[in-house]
Amino acid sequence: MPKLKIDGQECEFEGKKTVLQVAVENGIEIPHYCYHPSMSIVASCRICLAEVAQPNPRNDNKVELIPKLVPTCQTPAADGMEVYVKSPKSVANQKAVMEYLLINHPLDCPVCDQAGECSLQDYSYKYGRSCSRFEETKIKQPKKDIGTNVLLYSDRCIMCTRCVRFTREVSGTSELGVFGRGSSEQIDVFPGKPLENELSGNVVDICPVGALLDKDFLMSMRVWNLERASSIDGITASGDNISIEYNQDKVYRVKPRTNIDVNKWWISDEIRYGWKFVQREDRLRMPSVLNAEGGREDVEWKPAVEAVAARLKKIAEESGEGAISLLVSPMLSCEDAYLLGKLAVSLDPKAKLGVGQVPMEGEDKSFPGGYTIYAEKAPNARGVRRVLSKLTDNVLDYDSFVSQAAETKAVIVTGNYADAWVEDKLADMIAGKYVVLVDTLPSKLSETADVVLPGATWVEKAGTFENINNRLQRFVQAIKPLDYVKSEGQIAMDLMRYAGADFELSIYDDAAVRAAIGGEFVTDVHVPSEVEEEGIDLEYVEL
């Protein structure tokens, strides 16, 4: 295997790689702005220049220093090469580049959203001067509204062109370009073509400075006050890896996490901004029951759960097998689905289990950079079906459930959708039955159900989703559930306990539930208790 040395540290590498790529793989920092692993290399920022020595085949392969500094982002790594990032000559270049970049850069770190995660700020501390020698007047560049979600503060731009290359090579929409020359050079959108592609928010993520800003996050919270939870897209079927950033149980933004096998470095704007329903003011916050006058009244959890458990148990005993049905939303985790299914079959071994409707919007759309937006808008339809199939021989799809559950006496329905989801045929089917609704937002059913139990969104709990490509991925809890709100899994365990069902868990823990699933179904359930951060590709099973 070929090897090279970077500041004396020996690094092995395989295949065709640049010096900078080898450094990144080995945890060695070489400052850079314009380089991004997903896009073409332009070597324009010049801060990654370093002294390089390599074997000279014309001189018995003696290691000789290349006379000039070379861009490590563009220079192919070679066996026997020696790179000096911290040599006096390399450091002098880093300082010179930083001084040049700061000539016209405004000193507005105290009001810049990028402060705290800004490469220019970080490199200025490491490689910059303590004071500026620039005495002339800084060139002022305008602030621009370039799209629905993005602002451009041109005076902060260092012309790395990451955003331009993104729109050309990843989204394929080419809204951004470089206009002007010299000190008047600036990034802008082409006339009449605002930045409004479905991936536009990613340009904010890849901007190394605070030039491109997210309107939704603008001046809302300092990044050093944010906590971060590693999560999975809970809105679509793509299973994109995301970071939920929050403070004091309030979500402020969602950003992508890198997973080359799933979403690479990107997320769609739908995922980036689609979490807002989590903090809607009209969230269901208390259990409620339908009173004798047809109105609704809030009740405490214990009497609500006790009453539901007793009523379901009574219906199952009096009406016999097949009296209870359960519709599990594809918005729920595998763990929630298992516990709800376990509840239903513990009350009624012949309970009808179905998967809720899977929202579809348009068609799948693929982008030049390898990212795909899927038409399916449910994060776990496959996972729910996979788990329920181990509890019953016949997992019903939504339409089949609506027709077959008409024969049952009691229906447990789960929602957790971001938008209106209750269709007339479902509402008509359950009319006259004992209906227990577990949901997060008001709907047609929340007004008519006998009992409504407020559920938690995926941001407020932990579990696993199986995406459209059958990859099982774990997400962790970011914020606490609202007061008087519980996860669907915890609600199911509470109901089992009050109904007298034999189940070993009483407090929801996603890893313990996965262990219980695996323990009961041994190997064929395909929901392992330990899920790696990058997810697990499940063997596809025709269910």
Automatic annotation (TrEMBL):
Compartments reported by the entry: Membrane
Catalytic class of the enzyme: oxidoreductase
Chloroplast is among the record's keywords: no
GO cellular component: membrane
GO biological process, one term: ATP synthesis coupled electron transport
Similarity annotation: Belongs to the complex I 75 kDa subunit family.
Species in which this protein is naturally found: Poriferisphaera corsica
Listed cofactors: [2Fe-2S] cluster; [4Fe-4S] cluster
Gene3D superfamilies per record: 3.10.20.740, 3.30.70.20, 3.40.50.740
EC assignment: 1.6.5.11
GO molecular function: 2 iron, 2 sulfur cluster binding; 4 iron, 4 sulfur cluster binding; metal ion binding; NADH dehydrogenase (ubiquinone) activity; NADH dehydrogenase activity; quinone binding
Domain 4Fe-4S His(Cys)3-ligated-type: 89-128
Keyword NAD: yes
Name this polypeptide is given: NADH-quinone oxidoreductase chain 3
Keywords for this protein: 2Fe-2S, 4Fe-4S, Iron, Iron-sulfur, Membrane, Metal-binding, NAD, Oxidoreductase, Translocase
SMART domains: NADH-G_4Fe-4S_3
Entries under InterPro entries matching the protein: 2Fe-2S_ferredoxin-like_sf (IPR036010), 2Fe-2S_ferredoxin-type (IPR001041), Mopterin_OxRdtase (IPR006656), Mopterin_OxRdtase_4Fe-4S_dom (IPR006963), NADH_UbQ_OxRdtase_75kDa_su_CS (IPR000283), NADH_UbQ_OxRdtase_ferredoxin (IPR054351), NADH_UbQ_OxRdtase_Gsu_4Fe4S-bd (IPR019574), Prok_molybdopt-oxidoreductase (IPR050123)
Pfam family, one: Fer4_Nqo3
